[in-house]
Protein: Bacterial regulatory helix-turn-helix, lysR family protein
Organism: Staphylococcus saccharolyticus
Amino acid sequence: MDPYKVLIEVVKTESFTKAAGNLYTSQPSVSRDIKRLETKYDVKIFEFKSPYLSLTSEGEKLLQYALQRESIEQALWQNLKVGSQIIAGTLTLGSSYTYGEYLLSNQLTKLTQLYPDLHIHLRINNSDTVINDIKHNIIDIGIVEKEIRDNAVECQKIKEDEMVCIYKKSIEPKMDVCFVREKGSGTRFYQEVGLSQLNYNPYLIEINNIKVIKQMTQAGNGFTIISKSAIQQEDYETLVVKPLNVYRNYYLVKYIDKYVDKNIDIVIQTVLTDEIG
């Protein structure tokens, strides 16, 4: 037990026995704590003047220190309690390309408007890189395009996504070249599933950017399979958007032992509320 708290309680009650009762401990334990202080500072704290227990001059000084210490501790607790409710500071969010480029902007805008003192740094990479950054504490939380089976990472589904095949509207569309994401991308896995469904075996060109892939497709240089959420309304004027029976999910991920403070929690709740709600 904190001997300074014991000292304050003994002075309050003017009794070792009553102090022990209030502190839910024994009288010998209270005596030991007072003795610890006397030994530490090489002083005598109490003098017994029957029927009263009084402080020595050194004891008075120790009491004042104990009271100041308790006051500082109470102020600290109050400050921490209030501070924990304030949404402010910095946070690093990782996202895979499709979600980060096409779906995250509204959520970040909402967070910026509601919590102007919360500064979010966004890192966009493929899903494998996001997971690696999570595990090395480079980012606080992440959003990926494939389910992660790793005991070091917590994974929560936030949104279902549909994959579609797109190519330029043309009399003879170029279907012998397919633009795909690099290995390690969540999109790449589902592009291969889509190609298998279509029974296509085109020449593959890897590009690590969905926007560039769309531009190459719109230019009529080939076709691709991408998330339907990456298709804008105006894209339907120049592109054929062919539905596939290929679906995937977006997942919110964090390190299994990550401490979720108020900042992280508010970002998580915003993403979950926007997607599930």
Q: What stands out?
A: The chain is about 45% helix and 25% strand. The longest strand covers residues 239-255. Residues 160-247 form a domain with the D-Maltodextrin-Binding Protein; domain 2 fold (CATH 3.40.190.10).
